[in-house]
């Protein structure tokens, strides 16, 4: 806690590409990976908020870069398997809870990034889709598996085969995100949610994320009860019995 009693350890990550609705460049994908790997290894981090600078979350990929690498299978594979998946996997592998704060355009790469997050809070202005069929190419396999898992098969098919664009209320109706908020309410709710998460036991959050990843992949959970004698476990139980707030 800081001197005002507010939870510490909240990390903000801004997606920024001015003038292009924060479309992702190759450099940005690599930076995303580096940032989330650093957060994962930072024991002081308790919650991450990722958002788009300005009025949009992320409008997709920066198409101005595409002619330099998309027309050769080897360079195209390197882009998707190394750059894009490297960034997405770093979010998925991060043990710190991640909140996506979404307004405006959330297309293609934006949907992929948001689908990696644990909590998705959205403004009523947000719009979602992956209309890459208009550009003549499919979604890469690992990215499609991620998106279909998060959205459900029917919505993913409509995004890709129909180039359908969905409203925030439609996305909430399928359970992909929380109920939409006004643009004014969104930052307040993001701050409240991040503070709640950061005030709770960070070890429990990290272990929950590790367990969910193991269960999703069908792997056994390694040493699931190794936390038994940990400081946080003792503090949480002790605080409850002593009728006081725990100090994590």
Automatic annotation (TrEMBL):
InterPro entries: ClpP/crotonase-like_dom_sf, Enoyl-CoA_hyd/isom_CS, Enoyl-CoA_hydra/iso, Enoyl-CoA_hydra_C
Record-linked Pfam families: ECH_1
Gene3D superfamilies the record matches: 2-enoyl-CoA Hydratase, Chain A, domain 1 (3.90.226.10), Lyase 2-enoyl-coa Hydratase, Chain A, domain 2 (1.10.12.10)
SUPFAM superfamilies found in the cross-reference section: ClpP/crotonase
Keywords recorded for this protein, A-Z: Lyase
Similarity section: Belongs to the enoyl-CoA hydratase/isomerase family.
Identification of the protein by name: Enoyl-CoA hydratase/isomerase family protein
């Amino acid at each position: 806690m800081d001197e005002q009693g507010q939870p510490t350890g909240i990390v903000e990550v801004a997606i920024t590409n001015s003038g292009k609705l924060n479309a992702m460049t190759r450099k940005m994908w690599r930076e995303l990976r580096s940032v989330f790997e650093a957060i994962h290894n930072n024991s002081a981090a308790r919650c991450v908020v990722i958002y788009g600078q300005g009025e949009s979350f992320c409008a997709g990929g920066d198409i101005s870069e595409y002619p330099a690498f998309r027309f050769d299978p080897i360079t195209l594979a390197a882009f998707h398997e190394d750059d894009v998946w490297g960034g997405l996997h770093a979010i998925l592998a991060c043990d710190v809870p991640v909140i996506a704060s979404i307004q405006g355009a959330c297309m293609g790469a934006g949907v992929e990034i948001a689908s990696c997050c644990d909590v998705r809070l959205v403004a009523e202005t947000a719009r979602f889709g992956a209309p890459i069929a208009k550009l003549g190419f499919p979604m890469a396999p690992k990215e499609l598996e991620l998106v279909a898992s998060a959205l459900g098969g029917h919505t993913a098919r409509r995004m890709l085969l129909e180039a359908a664009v969905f409203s925030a209320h439609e996305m909430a109706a399928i359970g992909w995100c929380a109920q939409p908020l006004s643009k004014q309410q969104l930052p307040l709710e993001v701050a409240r949610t991040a503070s709640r998460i950061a005030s709770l036991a960070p070890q429990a959050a990290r272990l929950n994320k590790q367990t969910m990843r193991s269960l999703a992949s069908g792997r056994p959970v390694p040493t699931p009860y190794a936390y038994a004698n940990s400081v946080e476990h003792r503090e949480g139980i002790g605080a409850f019995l002593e009728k006081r707030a725990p100090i994590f």
